[in-house]
Design brief:
It is a single chain. 41% of the residues are buried. The two termini are 27 Å apart. It is globular and about 55 Å long. The longest helix is centred in the C-terminal third of the chain and has 20 residues. A five-stranded mixed β-sheet has the order 2-9-5-4-3. It has a four-stranded antiparallel β-sheet with strand order 1-7-8-6. It is α+β, with helices and mostly antiparallel strands and 273 residues long. It contains seven helices and eleven strands. The protein folds into two domains: 128 residues, MutM-like, N-terminal (N-terminal domain of MutM-like DNA repair proteins); 124 residues, Helicase, Ruva Protein, domain 3 (Orthogonal Bundle), CATH 1.10.8. The model has no long low-confidence stretch (mean pLDDT 93). The protein binds a DNA duplex (16 and 16 nucleotides) through loops.
Length: 273
DNA sequence: CCATCATCCTGCCGGC
DNA sequence: TGCCGGCAGGATGATG
């Protein structure tokens, strides 16, 4: 499921192929995927527009078009956005295709949870889901102090706090479990119970896990592909996610599994306190 | 404020 | 072999 590292890899892999190209045609195969806030025909706003740049905020991908219009994409679980040089036939779960000068961008999503939205670029920050997002994990303004401040007063479990996009943007179930393992903290711990030393460990673990994920090309546990259709490699480096019942890579203990914050959660009963 | 649950959706897997 | 129930989960909104 695309979390920050995966969306960042989609952004980077697409950018090198589509920036500067003009949208010639747009086809929608499953209309529900498109959330049109303006009530205008997407075609009127997309055709003839050039791709200017690609951005990202948390797990949201932005495709900025000339003419001050931006496409917002969220991939949820199984969403994909792949660029094909030249022609490419739509596949079973292809919901939208952007036809460019030299190729096509195919949006597909087996589970149909992902959405595409079109907004005026100037209003991007006003979109509720975007406006609510917490700081970017690698923004210099996201300091250890800021992190501690955002955690303070929370009565939820620390896993729930990490999954909450208002705490920090971009963490999902995979990187939440990985960061908590790296920090040696049990997912079901109450946020308020964390010592300052643990908050610092967790801060470093969040950045460490996300950075490692980005550099490995993301986690292709099952469905994830980047904008070139390639898999990532981080699934080979996971400490806990998807490894319940297997041995901890650090201490050899059998990894435990719980349901925390409504999500499957894997942890090491020895390494995490 | 927080937790839990239903909703959306389809492929996969284990059990029988 | 084939059917079926359960599971996977990000964001949102309802409910307790």
């Amino acid at each position: 499921m695309p979390e920050l590292p995966e969306v960042e890899n989609i952004r980077l892999s697409l950018a090198k192929n589509i920036i500067g190209q003009e949208i010639k045609e747009f086809k929608l195969f499953w209309p529900d995927v498109f959330v049109n806030a303006t009530d205008l025909d997407p075609n009127d706003l997309l055709i003839g527009k050039k791709v200017e740049s690609l951005g990202r905020r948390g797990k949201y991908l932005f495709i900025h078009l000339a003419g001050s219009v931006t496409l917002i994409l969220h991939f949820r679980m199984t969403g994909k956005l792949i660029y094909y040089q030249g022609e490419h036939e739509p596949e079973k779960h292809t919901h939208a295709v952007f036809y460019l000068e030299n190729g096509q961008i195919h949006h597909s999503d087996m589970r149909k949870f992902g959405r595409i939205q079109l907004v005026e670029t100037a209003l991007l920050g006003k979109v509720p889901a975007i406006a609510k997002l917490g700081p970017e994990p690698f923004d210099e303004r996201f300091s250890i102090e800021v992190f501690g401040q955002r955690l303070s007063g929370k009565k939820s479990t620390i896993k729930s706090a990490l999954l909450d996009q208002e705490t920090v943007a971009g963490i999902g179930n995979i990187y939440a479990d990985e960061a908590l393992f790296m920090a040696g903290i049990r997912p079901e711990r109450r946020t308020a119970s964390l010592k300052i030393s643990e908050v610092i460990l967790l801060y470093d673990a969040i950045q460490g896990a996300l950075k490692a994920g980005i550099e490995a090309g993301g986690t292709s546990f099952r469905d994830y592909r980047d904008g070139d259709g390639n898999k990532g490699l981080f699934q080979e480096n996971l400490y806990v996610y998807g490894r319940a019942g297997q041995n901890c890579k650090v201490c050899g203990s059998v990894l435990g599994k719980t349901k925390t914050a409504g999500r499957t959660t894997v942890f090491c009963p020895v390494c995490q306190i």
